[in-house]
Amino acid sequence: MTDTNRGVVYLGPGKVEVQDLEFPKLELEEQNHRPLQHGVILKVIATNIGGSDQHMVRGRTTAPPELTLGHEITGEVIEVGRDVEFIKQGDLVSVPFNIACGRCRNCKAGNAGVCENVNPARAGAAYGYVDMGGWHGGQARYVTVPYADWNLLKFPDRDQAMAKIRDLAMLSDIFPTGYHGAYTAGVGNGSTVYVAGAGPVGLASAASAQLLGAAVVIVGDMNAQRLAQARSFGCETIDLSQHDNLPEQIEQILGTPEVDAAVDCVGFEARGHGADGSQQEQPATVLNSLMTLTRSAGKLGIPGLYVTGDPGAPTEDAKVGTLGIRIGLGWAKSQSFTTGQCPVMRYNRQLMMAILNDKVQIARNVNATVIPLDKAPEGYQEFDKGAAKKFVLDPHGMVDAGSTFAKPANVPTQRVQNISVLEPKTREATSISEAFGRANQLRGEAARLIVAGDYEAAVDLGREALEVISPTIGPAEGEKIRPVELPRIQQAALLFGEVAFAYTLLGQTENATELLNQAQALIEHARQLIPTASAAVCFHGRSTYDPEGRCALIPPCPSSP
Questions:
Q1: How does residue 527 score in pLDDT terms, banded at 50, 70 and 90?
Q2: What is the CATH number of domain 174-341?
Q3: Is the pLDDT of residue 325 over 50?
Q4: Rounded to whole angstroms, how far apart are CA atoms 283 and 324?
Q5: What is the pLDDT of residue 418?
Q6: Where in the chain is the domain with CATH 1.25.40?
Q7: Which of 15, 189, 232, 489 could serve as 447's disulfide partner, Cβ 3.0–4.6 Å?
Q8: What is d(CA 365, CA 389) in angstroms, rounded to the nearest whole number?
Q9: Would you list the DSSP string of 116-148?
Q10: Order of strands across the sheet with 5-12?
Q11: More confident residue, 510 or 544
Q12: Could you read off the pLDDT of 158-168 as tens digits, one per residue?
């Protein structure tokens, strides 16, 4: 190869730098020149900054200087080892952050996070991470991936994958990890769920809980921007810097001080609760609070990272991972805990299909934000300050080129024109599922823009989404609205309300009112034609509530507290 390699290198606490690196080889020098003819070399398309990386950069692990960072990798195969059978040059793939052989006892049992053959020191390995076998990190232009036939998830269609690359980039870690937390906590249809932490993994876990059918998802954090991001896709939130009695806050939302399932997406750098407690680290706070508020015989999913070596811990015990956990409380309540690395391959294929078929907009929910590889140090700094973003590094400029939302149209905001969704029409060639998939993508980007404070651009994207779905709502020529139309009518009305919310943020209350009137007319029309529509959901949804819990729309929502 004539191209050069560059990557993000850890230099010491608080210091990372993008440096020139050797081009990857199909061997691992750190393990006595271990041959990797079962591996491939990838051109990295997207690689993310994660909370686990941030623990190292803060100096909260025993990571040595000169470690190449990065374990969340999506890329294109450019070189194939002699022993690779099924992965081909040119394939676009997602790389699970767990490195696994596919041959050992644990891998065969589906526990790829603790493979016995990839780390001489202990079970389990990962790219670019402390004590994980010395494998080179993927926050780089190129990287080696071993055991390619076993580890890599191939995307079925290149063009489709590039159109959804921001979402698919979440498959290497945070989406499966968040899902693993929710799944192992026992989340299912009708569950009430508490997620501790509104960082990217917490947001991914909250989105996963919704995907699994949760009735209510509550997210707790101390960062107002991150809590706003959680509310942007329908979560209830609790500001833990203001309240030290978590069960009491849960009771205000649910009417009972406990939940069915709880997920720890914080880990060992947890802080206390309340105005005073939140000012200092209390590593066992999250685990103890989850045992308190989870029902008897409930489950706790614990994807949050806990370590055996933390030089920056507040106590000597905590420095070696000994925390003040009330295990007696969990035992008395017959609770179950699931800890450890997420076995990514247990979930990533199904989650890929959910993304490709528009069942989830994970990039929107975690506020995926693309930056060039050379801007990684700035991304680490902003993330460390609590940015409500998931930074995606773009080493080759391919994410912006391929993503649906790389360059949203910037058209001037105009006075609202009526967008009719009730008149009979001839269906266009675009399928209903394609139209709603596109509209949901636009809606997701609009929500991200609202969180970022770009209300005018959010309005523009929201109106574009309305125009995309308007030909698919209501009766076709010669037909009446049928019950099968109701979910799409409700979704359209929800979208009307969300665009109206963006107008209120711009101070354009007249435009907001016009859109709300159209949404109300849409729901009322459906109720008249379909008796079962009387149970229709609130037409603009809880995602439009302001930070104080009041409905921000005009007129106020009848269900506003």
A1: low
A2: 3.40.50.720
A3: yes
A4: 8
A5: 47
A6: 408-544
A7: 232
A8: 10
A9: SSS-SSSS--BTT-TTS-SPPPSSBSEEEESSH
A10: 15-21, 5-12, 67-68
A11: 510
A12: 999 999 999 99
**3-state SS class at 68:** strand
178 contacts: CB under 8 Å, gap ≥ 6: 201, 202, 203, 204, 205, 206, 207, 208, 263, 265, 303
Architecture of domain 408-544: Alpha Horseshoe (1.25)
Check: CB of residue 70 under 8 Å from CB of residue 8: yes
Per-residue pLDDT tens over the stretch 9-42:
999 998 999 999 999 999 988 888 899 999 999 9
- What element of type H or E holds 438? helix 432-452
DSSP conformation letters of 274-301? HHHHTTSB-TTHHHHHHHHHEEEEEEEE
Distance CA 174, CA 105 (A): 25
Class of domain 5-172+346-394: alpha beta
In the block, residue with structure tokens 């969704």: 421
Which regions of the chain carry the CATH code 3.40.50.720? 174-341
Taking CA atoms, 513 is separated from 536, 553, 556, in Å, by 20, 8, 11
What amino acid occupies position 109?
Answer: A
- pLDDT value at 277 more than 80: no
Q: Which two structure tokens, joined as six digits, stand for 549?
A: 């819990």
